[in-house]
Amino acid sequence: MSSGSSHDKWNYLLSFPFALLCSIDMGWSGFLVGGASFLIGGFWFSPDLDIDSRPTRRWGPLKKFWMPYRQCLGHRSIISHSILLGTISRLTYGMIVLIILASPLCLISVQTIDINLLLQHELPKTRIHLVLCALVGLETSTWLHIIQDCNIFSKN
């Protein structure tokens, strides 16, 4: 099992090559989105959000929002420390918390957002590759974390 500092070191080391890889097809926007999502995935959306860890503490006062997630999952559970399912569970949990916190704002708001108008807008259509790049960056950092936890990078 890797330490928190080892996870951090590898996140820093591999975020730049990942960003370069994304820039081949998407230019500077791919570089920025790919690199940032890889770092965010490693530092704030790590599989170690299921324990009191560096990624949990990086949330500062907002780390309390991850308490139910930690209490429902044991450390290294099949949900938190698995390919695809781990990232999906953390993103889903984060969105649920965000929706719950934002719901009182909907009661205050006079204007409502027309979801059809948003979906018809050109931005989501032209930038879907950047959204996919961000999701792949988050998932790739999860893979790195899981590989490190399997001691593949350890010195034997």
TrEMBL record:
Q: From the UniProt record, list the coiled-coil ranges.
A: none
Q: Membrane-spanning regions, if any?
A: 12-45, 93-119
Q: Which UniProt keywords apply?
A: Membrane, Plastid, Transmembrane, Transmembrane helix
Q: Does the keyword Transmembrane helix apply?
A: yes
Q: InterPro entries from the entry?
A: DUF2227_metal-bd (IPR019250)
Any keyword Transmembrane helix? yes
PANTHER family given in the database record: SLL0924 PROTEIN (PTHR39085)
What is this protein's record name? Metal-binding protein
